[in-house]
Write a structure and sequence with these properties.
Elements: E1 15-18, E2 22-26, E3 30-35, E4 38-41, E5 44-49, H1 53-67, E6 76-78, H2 92-95, E7 99-103, E8 106-107, E9 110-117, H3 121-129, E10 131-132, E11 135-136, E12 146-152, E13 155-156, H4 168-175, H5 177-200, E14 203-215, E15 218-222, E16 231-235, H6 251-258, H7 273-291
Antiparallel strand pairs: 1-2, 2-3, 3-7, 4-5, 6-7, 8-14, 9-12, 9-13, 9-14, 10-11, 14-15, 14-16
Helix pairs in contact: 1-7, 4-5
Length: 296
């Protein structure tokens, strides 16, 4: 079993940021992203670790970064610790599989979400006012129904607490109309291409989120891409609108948490071993199905 990683204090480089799952180190001309085995749900980080989760997330992101370069460039330089600068190769065993050397870019202060199916916060809004991010929707849609067309629904990017969905007009007010239009166009293209590929593997890509930045004025995609943390993946053969779907992502964990008397604020409840192992299995299956590779 691969060693579990909660913290990255063994790395003697300046810690630029510690996210819910990823730790970011400043290497001067570049950045090092290390994906831990921490897991979060409802913006709360849990005490338990999910085996191989960091390796799965990093490996899936690397797979998609390579696969989508014809659509848009990305920040990835290498995932091989033996090529990392500043003596980081001495941590090769700890960093193998779960790290990525990336370019420094100017990140945009928004998240770009594309939804192809009705679920999550979109379902709640639809049931309340029959719209999604202020976009009117047809009447009579059920949970998990496929939308008439994929839709672009941006959100704020909160340093702490919950992100908030915003309208396209609000996005324009934050970053300007030209860049907003570019974000919408490339996000929809990325989603459509990835959804078609995933469907060929028997998986529905229900929705996903991206983060973008600018490098010398050029728009590039960054952070993670089509991972089980940033996307909803459903089993195609088991798909049936009107209910929750069999998923390969954190939705399994979220649904288990919804059965508890927990207000979704820290401290988090303890995760039983059965939930930990089931979550790990879902992440691993997503990787193997999508990439055709094995982590073994």
């Amino acid at each position: 079993m691969t060693n579990l990683v909660r913290e990255t204090d063994f790395i003697d480089k300046p810690l630029l940021a510690r996210g819910k799952v990823r730790d970011l180190f400043d290497l001067g001309q570049s950045l090092l992203i290390v994906v831990t085995d921490r897991v979060s749900a409802f913006d709360v980080v849990f005490n338990e670790l999910i085996p191989q989760k960091g390796i799965v997330l990093n490996s899936i992101a690397a797979f998609w970064f390579e696969k989508t370069r014809s659509i848009i460039d990305n920040h990835m330089i290498s995932t091989d610790p033996l090529t990392y600068p500043d003596g980081l190769d001495r941590y090769a065993d700890e960093l193998a599989g779960r790290s990525m050397l990336v370019r420094k870019i100017d990140m945009l202060p928004v998240e770009c979400i594309v939804r192809g199916y009705l679920e999550g916060s979109a379902l709640k809004e639809y049931r309340a006012i029959q719209s999604i991010s202020c976009i009117p929707m047809p009447a009579g849609l059920r949970q998990a129904d496929r939308l008439p067309e994929p839709i672009f629904t941006p959100s704020t990017k909160a340093d702490s607490g919950h992100d908030e969905n915003i309208s396209f007009d609000q996005l324009v007010s934050i970053i300007g109309s030209d860049l907003a239009e570019q974000l919408r166009s490339v996000s929809l293209q990325l989603y459509r291409d990835a959804a078609a590929y995933a469907e060929s593997k028997g998986i529905i890509l229900a929705d996903t989120k991206f983060e973008f930045g600018l490098s010398n004025g050029q728009l590039i995609v960054a952070d993670e891409m089509f991972t089980p943390d940033s996307s909803r993946f459903w089993e195609l053969d088991d798909y049936q609108p009107g209910r929750s779907q069999k998923s390969f992502d954190k939705q399994y964990l979220r649904e288990w948490l919804e059965t508890l008397d927990w207000d979704k604020n820290p401290p988090p409840p303890a995760l039983p071993e059965s939930v930990i192992q089931a979550t790990a299995a879902k992440y691993l299956e997503a990787y193997e199905r999508l990439t055709g590779k094995s982590l073994g």
